[in-house]
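Case study 2.
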Amino acid sequence: MSDDEAILVAFTLSDGLYGVEVDQVREITAMRDISPVPNSPDYVVGVTNLRGQVTTVTDLKQRLGLFNEAGVGKNSRIIIVESDETSVGMAVDSVREVMRIPRGDIEPVPDVVSEFNVGTEYIRGVGKLDGGDLIVLLDMEKVLAEE
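Prediction:
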């Protein structure tokens, strides 16, 4: 891996494209049975048994304050991410691909967006893709911090 490019797992939430650094992803799995946990935060869907390990599953749309109109679809996946030896599953609408993006094409969150959007503390930057599309890069340390 080169220091001048980021390797990302790209996934969708609502109508947006998001990404996390591939080295933070342990695995991607299909949706599975999830047991709700009483009195857990709104964004915690529950827990699931993943190869004998109880894993917390969060609704990433809820965590980021995005509209949660679609629910679970046939392309929904759970991305298992690791942070400080903690594994957490993030429910996403679909996983697109693993992609490389030059670090020079990643910019900080624009000030105008930062001022009005509460969820921007979870965003590491915004990447510009060929064709003009954008990918929002999440800071998994901050997304998982309160869990």
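The chain has one domain: 5-144.
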